[in-house]
Amino acid sequence: MAGGGSAGLGEAEARDVFERWLAEDRVDRFDLGRPPLLRFALFRLREDRFRLVLTNHHILLDGWSTPLLVRDLFALYERPGGESALPRPTPYRDYLAWYGSRDRGAAVAAWCGVLAGWRRRRCWGRWCPVRVGWCRVRCGVRFRRV
């Protein structure tokens, strides 16, 4: 069990310990000023059954990146010490170069086309994702305050 072992515990006891640990982990909030912002815990529930729990602050991983992390983690697990099992990361400067080469005018036109028929704005709290000044000016799409 996370930091210990399940030696001497029956399956039901091991599951109870696991469930209690999960309940405690759910309320153990992350402090951005104090590492770690990512926790791993491995539990042995039976001789041949394990649970890996990954807990992270949402600033580190989101719905897109979590599956990538898990994919890489299992690739490394299958090949211990074999970092070549992972794809080479694309340097961030390459992404910035690609992004800088995009046609901003075409992007604005595409989004204005998408928003053109949308007359009602929905807001959640005080933040409105469609509050974009250039779209009002260039598309003629006007959103009224709700």
Automatic annotation (TrEMBL):
It comes from the Bacteria. SUPFAM superfamilies: CoA-dependent acyltransferases. One of its GO terms (biological process) is amino acid activation for nonribosomal peptide biosynthetic process. GO terms for cellular component: cytoplasm. Pfam families: Condensation. Coiled coil: none annotated. One of its GO terms (molecular function) is phosphopantetheine binding. Residues 13-112 form the Condensation domain. InterPro entries: CAT-like_dom_sf (IPR023213), Condensation_dom (IPR001242). PANTHER family: FATTY ACID SYNTHASE (PTHR45527:SF1), NONRIBOSOMAL PEPTIDE SYNTHETASE (PTHR45527). This is Condensation domain-containing protein. It comes from Streptomyces violaceusniger.
